[in-house]
Specification:
The chain has 10 helices and 7 strands. It has about 325 residues and is α/β, with parallel strands linked by helices. A 7-stranded mixed beta sheet has the order 3-2-1-4-6-5-7, sandwiched between helices. Helix 1 links the parallel strand 1 and strand 2. Helix 5 runs parallel beside helix 8 and helix 9 packs antiparallel against helix 10.
Length: about 325
């Protein structure tokens, strides 16, 4: 059966919200005549979330469930959900009812029209704590826009829509779920848009994320930028800086040597001597790091895997 929509929902200890969420999704999709599936990924919940899913599947044949043995994190849940998704447009949303399924028809139309590969929700009006969540989120998204070049106001919004090929072409791991638009852009999907969406106050439970997500998120963004740009050619990064540092140190050494013979100076007592020595050592180490990284990269199983848009007579 050809499905219009797949909705991937990671969940962790959300047993109270699941019946209401599933009923809401079914209502929206039925009213809009969408052939759909809902893939709920239980990320090692310790409450009755899985038992609730087992009850709901008796009522909703469109519901699928994946249960992790333990808590692996949201990225792992999304990655498994993306693997299982069969819909032409794939949605992600959180299970806490803060994302509104009423946004699905408009976001579906934006993807289905062919105008976008990815549409991210923008919670322009938020009902979170202004100090602990809203302000850090604005700073976080500002840094993301500056580094990634993707002009999204809310990179971390859980409500997103993707063309099917996008989710089948990317891999999400660690805590990279915050930067799926960045990963998609690096994979060649450049048509990224956003839509202002409704943000609802949390009805059940408590937030599962703390302040550490902002620090981890910044480090993950740097990792993505490095891996996508230099993952298959690490020597271009380490080798370039290694040569520059070595040449800087070598140039200072030539200058000091000439100064000793022409001006009878003392090399060892000058700070420039130690700067030159340190630069040459660091330059050599950078170059060797690039060389070793190149050997590792060329031995990787995915060294020649690339995303192919289409073929002719192949």
């Amino acid at each position: 059966m050809n499905l219009d929509i797949s909705i991937v929902i990671p969940l962790y200890n959300e047993d109270e919200s699941l019946p209401e969420l599933m009923a809401w999704i079914d209502k929206v999709c039925t009213e809009n005549n969408f052939a759909y599936e809902v893939i709920m990924v239980d990320d090692g919940s310790r409450d009755n979330s899985w038992q609730v899913l087992e009850e709901l599947v008796q009522k909703y044949s469109s519901l699928r469930g994946i249960r992790f043995q333990r808590n692996y994190g949201k990225s792992a849940a999304l990655n498994e959900g993306f693997k299982a998704a069969k819909g032409n447009v794939v949605f992600t949303m959180d299970a806490d009812l803060q994302d509104s399924p009423d946004e699905i028809p408009e976001m579906y139309a934006m993807i289905n029209s062919g105008q976008y590969d990815l549409v991210s929700g923008w919670k322009k009006v938020r009902y979170d704590n202004a100090v602990t969540k809203n302000l850090p989120s604005k700073l976080y998204n500002g840094v993301n826009r500056m580094i990634s070049g993707i002009q999204l106001h809310d990179m971390n919004c859980g409500l997103k829509a993707y063309r099917k090929k996008v989710v089948k072409s990317i891999e999400v791991y660690g805590e990279m779920h915050r930067f799926i638009p960045v990963i998609a852009k690096q994979a060649g999907f450049l048509r990224i848009g956003e839509k202002v969406v409704q943000h609802r106050a949390r009805k059940y439970g408590v937030s599962k994320f703390g302040w550490e997500r902002f620090i981890n998120g910044f480090l993950d963004l740097l990792s993505i930028q490095f891996i996508t740009r230099f993952g298959k050619k690490p020597m271009h990064f380490f080798g370039m800086y290694g040569i520059l540092m070595f040449m800087l140190g070598f140039g200072i050494t030539i200058y000091l040597t000439m100064s000793k013979y022409f001006f009878a100076g003392n090399l060892v007592n000058k700070p420039a001597f130690y700067i030159a020595l340190t630069s040459m050592i660091l330059g050599t180490q950078f170059f060797l790091t690039g060389f070793i990284a190149e050997l590792v990269s060329r031995s990787a199983t995915d060294r020649n895997q690339y995303s192919i848009e289409e073929t002719i007579n192949l």
